[in-house]
Amino acid sequence: xxxxxxxxxxxxxxxxxxxxxxxxxxxxxxxxxxxxxxxxxxxxxxxxxxxxxxxxxxxxxxxxxxxxxxxxxxxxxxxxxxxxxxxxxxxxxxxxxxxxxxxxxxxxxxxxxxxxxxxxxxxxxxxxxxxxxxxxxxxxxxxxxxxxxxxxxxxxxxxxxxxxxxxxxxxxxxxxxxxxxxxxxxxxxxxxxxxxxxxxxxxxxxxxxxxxxxxxxxxxxxxxxxxxxxxxxxxxxxxxxxxxxxxxxxxxxxxxxxxxxxxxxxxxxxxxxxxxxxxxxxxxxxxxxxxxxxxxxxxxxxxxxxxxxxxxxxxxxxxxxxxxxxxxxxxxxxxxxxxxxxxxxxxxxxxxxxxxxxxxxxxxxxxxxxxxxxxxxxxxxxxxxxxx
Length: 388
Prior knowledge:
alpha+beta; 6-stranded mixed sheet
């Protein structure tokens, strides 16, 4: 595994939200490619044994091209994608050009927590065409103020792709495995366990998640929140002392806030990924409605009792409201951009009913927020900004 052979790679991946990461291995004098992505993207690539790479041209700027989109086709019309804007003279442009201009190269997939899940020998049969096309392409110079405009343009341009664009895409085939696909990871690093957990357990993870994916997802959410908040104030599956029923999936306690997180996930299996977009949308809406109802119950209990009383192994823990702001968060596996208005209705109903700020996020969104808003104040303000 590349993370065992070159552990320093993990330090670089920690700074990457999601994306393509070309890496030069000087000892072996070769380029490899790392893709950091959600588990759904990784399983789609593993299932299809291929990735489609689009070199996106554009006529809205002075340059001929704006970047790459790596597409993972769980659905033909709305595949999962990773967007990579490219800029003139940038190291990323140089390195990705060198990687994809190879006929064969090693390709590794990591998730949000920098866990290495898949390693393969990849093949680009059209490497010569790619080398020629990107060699002739022009890109704009990097301008920080324009980055989101370019990313939006990548989205728009890919959204109107046609059969010719599909035909011109480069197929990266996933060939021989560098190690077995069906691995499970037991991580003993401090950041992966040691929370206030109603059921203390070791930190296990796997790419395929059958049956009830909740426990693995909830632990992963706690890990994300610990990037921002003291882990001593993070409670996983806390139980109410009076009813012995679960209060919420994750409770984060700070000097200024009580954050209630209600999360929903689906199994990460080939069968689930192959469902139609219509069915996926229906499932997401159902999850949001159920999570919103559960969140409303937890927020009401906390508000009406001026805090919470939860069980622990020995006795009980009383957490008074004491001037803390209550915040609610509904978290789901994924969201579709055009579905936000309808999906937000149940959460906004909680806000209106209780007058308590509550926000809807998908898993990737929480990952990016906790990567970049790394203090409690920044994170909470980020949530509040979403309600404006």
